[in-house]
Design a protein that fits this description.
The chain has a two-stranded antiparallel sheet. Helix content is about 70%, strand content about 0%. It is globular. It folds into two domains: about 1-80; about 120-310, no CATH class. The chain is mainly alpha-helical and about 325 residues long. Pfam families: MbhD, MnhB. It is found in: Cell membrane. It is a multi-pass membrane protein. Keywords: Cell membrane, Membrane, Transmembrane, Transmembrane helix.
Length: about 325
C-alpha cells in the first residue's frame, strides 16, 4: 500500500468522523467550526480528484462565505442556546436516522449500479471545444454546452437576494442591510481589513481571468471579492450600501441580464438560444463573465449581510 493510498484513507476517515461530529455536537459554535473545517477538507478531496475548479468553489463557499454566514447565525442564536427548549422525541430522532440511512443507501446503490463504462458526453464536448477558444474544459462546458444551467444559477442568486430583502420591516426598506459593525481601529480585525483586501482583490481578479484556460472562473473570483468586501464591512471601515441605490441594483442584475441578452442574440442571429458565433464566442463569454463576477460578489456579500435593518437617512 502506497503512502498516497494511506493518506487518502486517513483523509476519508477524518472527513467522515468530522461530519458525524458536526451533526452530533450540541454547541452551535463548535458545530459551525466543524462545518467550516469539513468544507476545507472536502476541498482537499476535490484536489485529489483533480477537480481544482470544484475545490476552489468549495473552499470559497463551504469554508469561507458559508462559515461567515454560520458564525453570524451562531452569534445571533447565542442567547437562544441558553433558553431550554423542547427536545425532539425519540420517534423523531429514529425517523431522522432511518431517513438519513435510506438516503445514503440509495446514493450508494445509484453509484454501484452505474453501467461500466458510465455514459458520458465528454468526448463530444472535447471534440467541439474549439468553437469557444477556451482551453479550460470546465469553463467551456459551463459557458457553452450547459450555458442555460449557468444562467439560471445567477437567476437563483437574484431571487435569493430578493427573498432576503423581503424580510425587512417596512420602516427599514431601502436602507442599509445588516447592523453597523464597529471594531477596534487598532485591533487585529481592522489591521487585516486594511492588509488583505488589496491582495485578495488581485487574487480574485486573477482567478477570474485565468478561468478561460486554467482552474478558476467568475464564481470563484466573485466569492473571493465578496469575502474581502465583507472583511472591510465587519471591521467597520465602510458600511453596507443602501439597497435603494440604483447602481447596486444594476450590478445585481448585470450578470443575468447580459447572459439573457447574449442568449437572445444567439436565437436571433444564430441557430439556437445561447449559441455563440465561433468568431465571437470568446469575447462574448468574457463579457458575460465580467458582468457575472460583479453580480456574484455583490449578491454573496449582501446575502451574508442580511435584510435591510437601518434607514438610509442618518
Amino acid at each position: 500500500m502506497s503512502i498516497t493510498t494511506i493518506f487518502e484513507i486517513l483523509l476519508a476517515a477524518v472527513v467522515l468522523g468530522l461530519g458525524i461530529w458536526t451533526i452530533a455536537v450540541r454547541e452551535t459554535f463548535s458545530a459551525t467550526v466543524g462545518f467550516v473545517t469539513y468544507g476545507l477538507l472536502v476541498a482537499l478531496i476535490w484536489v485529489r480528484l483533480e477537480a481544482v475548479d470544484v475545490a476552489l468553489t468549495e473552499a470559497a463557499i463551504g469554508g469561507g462565505l458559508g462559515g461567515v454566514l454560520l458564525l453570524g447565525a451562531a452569534a445571533r442564536l447565542r442567547n437562544a442556546d441558553l433558553v431550554a427548549g423542547e427536545a425532539p422525541g425519540k420517534l423523531l430522532r429514529v425517523s431522522a436516522a432511518v431517513l438519513s440511512g435510506l438516503t445514503a443507501a440509495a446514493l450508494a446503490g445509484a453509484i454501484l449500479l452505474l453501467p461500466d463504462p458510465a455514459p458520458t458526453l465528454a468526448p463530444a464536448a472535447l471534440a467541439n471545444s474549439w468553437a469557444t477558444s477556451l482551453t479550460n474544459p470546465v469553463t467551456n462546458v459551463l459557458m457553452a454546452f450547459r450555458a442555460m444551467d449557468t444562467m439560471l444559477e445567477k437567476v437563483v442568486l437574484l431571487l435569493a437576494i430578493i427573498g432576503v430583502w423581503s424580510l425587512a420591516p417596512d420602516i427599514a426598506w431601502g436602507g442599509h442591510p445588516g447592523p453597523r459593525h464597529q471594531a477596534d481601529p487598532r485591533g487585529i480585525l481592522a489591521f487585516l481589513a486594511r492588509l488583505l483586501p488589496p491582495v485578495g482583490i488581485v487574487v480574485g481578479i486573477h482567478i477570474f481571468w485565468t478561468g478561460a484556460n486554467h482552474p478558476g472562473g467568475a464564481f470563484q473570483g466573485g466569492a473571493i471579492l465578496a469575502s474581502m468586501w465583507l472583511l472591510v464591512i465587519m471591521a467597520g471601515l465602510i458600511d453596507t450600501p443602501p439597497v435603494s441605490r440604483r447602481w447596486l441594483r444594476f450590478i445585481l442584475i448585470a450578470g443575468p441580464s447580459l447572459f439573457l441578452v447574449v442568449g437572445l442574440g444567439g436565437l436571433w442571429f444564430g441557430t439556437a438560444f445561447l449559441s455563440y458565433p465561433p468568431s465571437m464566442a470568446k469575447p462574448l463569454i468574457l463579457g458575460i463573465e465580467v458582468a457575472m463576477i460583479l453580480t456574484i460578489a455583490a449578491t454573496l456579500g449582501l446575502l451574508l449581510a442580511g435584510a435591510p435593518e437601518r434607514n438610509a437617512k442618518p
